[in-house]
Design goal:
The complex is a heterodimer of chains A (373) and B (135).
Chain A (H helix, E strand, L loop, with lengths): L10 E3 L3 H22 L6 H24 L13 H12 L11 H28 L11 H35 L4 H7 L1 E3 L12 H23 L12 H7 L13 H9 L13 H13 L8 H7 L12 H6 L5 H5 L9 H4 L22
Antiparallel strand pairs in A: 1-2
Chain B lengths: L1 H14 L2 H19 L8 H9 L13 H4 L7 E2 L5 E2 L14 H16 L5 H13 L1
Antiparallel strand pairs in B: 1-2
Helix pairs in contact in B: 2-6, 3-6
The chains are: A mainly alpha (373), B mainly alpha (135).
Chain lengths: 373, 135
């Protein structure tokens, strides 16, 4: 090809630039979401979600590009017929692999599986993010229970995707090392040796590059705009000042959504002996505080904390005795809590910047420097 | 005509002066102490200090003394059992203290019951505040 002086004889540009960019950005985004999802703590959720946001936009582009892209980007050219797949597998079993100009049949099915898997992961991720964390585009329409349930689906899909990625990479390694087909390089510079008599017509032009890059920027930009559009927070009440005055002198005034109405009533009836201290209130204040706590108790909220901590009753009445609380804080030692800039386990607001709203969002976890997070 | 109005204004301003309010709170405790004991002869910072530092052993096991939370030094910040800082009790360091009768009564009720296992008398409350006013 005249515009590509270094191209090997018979090589032709098969992967247009937008497709190659899509591929490598998707690889990075998938890597980030796998690492943040499987290896890092909850306070990296923002990065996991960002990777998912980028993938959502990329997928929208890819779907459109599968219809209007250059020849080998179009889904219609994917060799998906079962006969072709059978023939290729037969060849592979006899240790042979033909070089295909575009995707080979097994590879094409792999692309379909990867795109479908990623699409489902982005969709279920949106549901989990909206329901369990009450964030993002679906925050107002999905309840905690649904989000929490769909999380299981999201996790199964992630395991399947990880498997598919593994097979995809293994296939590429076999193609490159065993059959010496330069498929990785082709995904970098776009050129592939054309097999046999092959086609010689140019399939990729400057228009593809310009239109494709524009479309990709538009799709990712629009998607991310929708994704991160500020939305009214779905949150329980912010702790009231009157309540903080009555319950916030000895410890942080616990958000009402962290206990059930029943636990609050019991606790408020026994303030004269409150965990070894007299925390009594004048009767009118006691009744007002009880009414406030009951009105905003766990049952009235739909946050993760209200479901996993608030609704779980403990014999001691303690928030810090719930299994969920202990599991989430097991990496913290007694010394971490005793630090002067924390005080105790009960200083939820020392590490959770949004503690007064009862949300306990992952991206609001900000312990003082030196606390393992 | 203007004089009573101005006097009223000055008095009101004084009444909202924290130290002045602490003084009026003490007056109230003095009246109550006199009513309880005709021989009452004024508050004593020394008795206040003794109350503050005492370990009576009649209260709840986790709170043996006022100093458990307020520390032995009235000018130093204290710490609750739940780890929250408490501003110093000495009036010279925390001039806003002993100004809100409802707050003062709330804490005497709680803390005396926790440490002494009973309510404090008006004389004990006055002694304590007098002691803190000298610190």
């Amino acid at each position: 090809m005249t515009d590509q002086p270094n191209a090997p004889a018979g090589a032709q540009t098969v992967w247009d630039l937008p497709l190659r960019l899509f591929h490598w950005i998707a690889v990075s985004a998938v890597a980030v979401s796998l690492v943040t999802g499987y290896l890092l703590g909850d306070h990296w959720l923002f990065l996991h979600v960002a990777a998912g946001g980028v993938l959502g936009g990329l997928l929208a582009f890819r779907l459109a590009w599968g219809v209007i892209g250059s020849r080998y980007s179009r889904f219609a050219t994917f060799p998906l017929r079962p006969s072709g797949v059978r023939r290729q597998i037969g060849h592979l079993m006899r240790g042979r692999s033909d070089l295909h100009t575009g995707h080979n049949p097994v590879g094409a099915w792999m692309i379909v599986a990867l795109l479908a898997g990623l699409g489902l992961l982005v969709a279920t991720g949106l549901v989990v993010w909206g329901g369990q964390e009450h964030q993002g585009p679906l925050s107002a329409v999905i309840g905690y229970k649904l989000g929490h349930g769909v999380k299981e689906v999201h996790e199964v899909l992630a395991a399947l995707l990880l498997t598919a990625v593994g097979i995809h990479v293994a296939g590429v390694v076999v193609e490159t090392v065993v059959f010496r087909h330069p498929v990785v390089k082709a995904m970098v510079h776009g050129r592939k040796p054309v097999p046999g008599s092959g086609e010689t017509a140019r399939t990729v032009g400057l228009t593809h590059t310009v239109v494709g890059l524009g479309l990709m920027a538009l799709a990712v930009g629009a998607w991310l705009y929708w994704f991160y559009l500020p939305r009214p927070a779905v949150a329980p009440v912010r702790t009231s000042q009157a309540y903080t005055r009555d319950c916030g002198d000895c410890h942080w005034a616990f958000h009402p959504s962290l206990r059930t109405a029943g636990t609050w009533r019991t606790m408020m009836a026994g303030l004269a002996d409150h965990y070894g201290e007299d925390a009594s209130l004048a009767p009118d204040r006691r009744d007002q505080v009880t009414a406030y706590l009951v009105a905003h108790a766990a049952e009235t909220a739909d946050t993760e904390a209200s479901h996993e901590i608030g609704r779980r009753e403990t014999a001691s009445g303690r928030i810090t005795d719930t299994r969920y609380w202990q599991r989430r804080h097991r990496q913290l030692s007694d010394q971490d809590f005793a630090r002067p800039d924390v005080g105790s386990k009960m200083a939820c607001n020392a590490c959770h910047r949004d503690a007064d709203t009862g949300r306990f969002d992952d991206d609001m976890i900000q312990p003082p420097k030196g606390v393992p997070a | 005509m203007k004089t009573p109005f101005l006097t009223g204004l000055v008095l009101a301003a004084l009444a909202f002066q924290p130290a002045a309010r602490a003084a009026s709170l003490l007056d109230g405790y003095a009246d109550a102490a006199r009513a309880a004991d005709a021989g009452f002869a004024g508050f004593s910072a020394g008795r206040g200090r003794a109350l503050f530092a005492a370990t009576p052993g009649t209260g709840k096991p986790d709170t043996p003394s006022c100093t458990t939370c307020h520390t032995a030094d009235p000018r130093a910040a204290g710490r609750t059992r739940a780890g929250k800082a408490i501003a110093p009790m000495a009036l010279s360091v925390s001039p806003d203290r002993y100004a809100d009768p409802a707050k003062v009564e709330k804490w005497f009720r709680r803390n005396c019951n926790s440490v002494l296992g009973r309510a404090c008398t008006a004389r004990e409350k006055g002694d304590f505040i007098r002691f803190m006013a000298t610190q």
